[in-house]
Each structure stands twice: as structure tokens, then as C-alpha cells.
Write a structure and sequence with these properties.
3-stranded antiparallel β-sheet; alpha+beta; single chain
Length: about 260
Amino acid sequence: MYYKNLKKLRELTNINIIDCKKALDESNNDINTAILILKKYENNFNIKNNNLYNSSYKYGIIISEVNENNDYGFIMKLLSNNDLVLKNDNVLNFYKKVSNFCISNKIKDFDIIRNNFNLEYKKLIFKLKENLIIKDFKYLEGNLIKNYVHINKRGVIVNFKSFNNIDNNFNILKFILMQIIFSNPIYIYKSDIKKNDINNIRNIIINKYKDKKINENNLIEEKINHFLKEKILEEQIFIMDNNLKMKDLFYKYEIKIDKFKMLNI
């Protein structure tokens, strides 16, 4: 009965088996009490029947792949409370399988990943005796999908709708991906901004500086314009040339970006 409860507690919480055993011993083999004990001392898990759930973890890496036709790409996080787990050969093989599955089938729904890898995932975390979580799965389909991951901690996928002289200026695409990662824009073009967005930004700025009594319209508008210059990709200064704005680069190479999706650890 004890080992049956231990297995059930492990499946319910995804907490490593050592901590589950301690909690079960402390609770005199009562599962409900053991869950309360784990919840009291562990802030980084959710009690769920399904695996591959979302939670908060200390360590992580970004995984991103694009298919050979460059018309599909995905990005997601792989997380754990133990950084060594993310370097484990079994884990590396697991996320390569997941990546290949996503690319081969152009996966758009995370539940499909969950359903196909649930059993293998259970076996893996039981073997590791540590949690391993996949979360924030995102994908893009389009004309020309490109991705870039910086030291496994920042990643982006972008759909380039059009691009002139791509063969001769291929590095430009990489520089744009790097620009997005390091400048963290919200919008691509000024035309993407909605009236409600401006109103929300205005309210944020007024609340931010309310102690300094900023109520002059011209000063508020100045703050708004400064914010937008930083958060609109085409208005940013190109990281590889301080004399060039991104919109000038777009014009020069006839670049049109449809959308991008980004993740950070």
C-alpha cells in the first residue's frame, strides 16, 4: 500500500520521488496530507493529473527549430529545478524527439505534444527523479520563417513576408533576429499601434510619474513618444549601425515582417 501511494503521489505532483517519500513518511502514508506537506515546502509545482504542465522553475533553456522549407517554426521552454538535468543525455534525446515531431508534423497545438509524449515523459522524470517541464509552446507558419536562440536563454521566430536579394544579404536576417531579441520590441510597425494602446501607455506613464506631478500634456506626449521609439521595431536604431534606423534597413532590402514570437528565460 505504501509504494502504491508513493507512486500515486509522484504522479499527482511530479515532485521528485525522494521528497514524495519524505512527505509520505511525515504524513503516515496519507496522500492528502502528503500533498499539503509538499505544497507547504515546495512553491514551484502545481497539483495536476496531466503532465507537461506549466509552472515556475529556476533553470531553463529555449528550444527552437525551423523546417527545411522555412515555412514552419516553433519555439518553447524546457524547464527544471536542477540545471544538470537540462544537460542530461536522456533529456537531450527527449527534446530532440519532441523537436523532430513538431517539425515533421507542423504541430500547432501543445496538447498534441502532450498526448504523444505523455508516457515517455512519465518514464523520463521517474528515471531522473527530478521535474522536467515543457511550456510556452509557440509556432509560426509563413513565407520565410527564421529563428535565432542566444545562449539558450533568449529565442525568437520571425515570419519574413518579403525580402529582396536574400542570397547576397543573408546575414541581414540574422541581425534583425538579434535586434528583436536584444531590444524586445512590442510592435513591428508604427501602424500596428491601436488607439487603445496609446491610451493604456498614457495611463501607465501618468501613474508612474504621479508622485512627480507630471500633468502637462506636452511632457506626457514626450514620454509616450520616447516609449514608442524603444518599443516599435522600425523606429529603433539598428544594432549593427548607429547611423541607421530599422525602417531604413527595411526600405533598403525591401523587408516586410509579418509577425514574430519571442521567449526569454
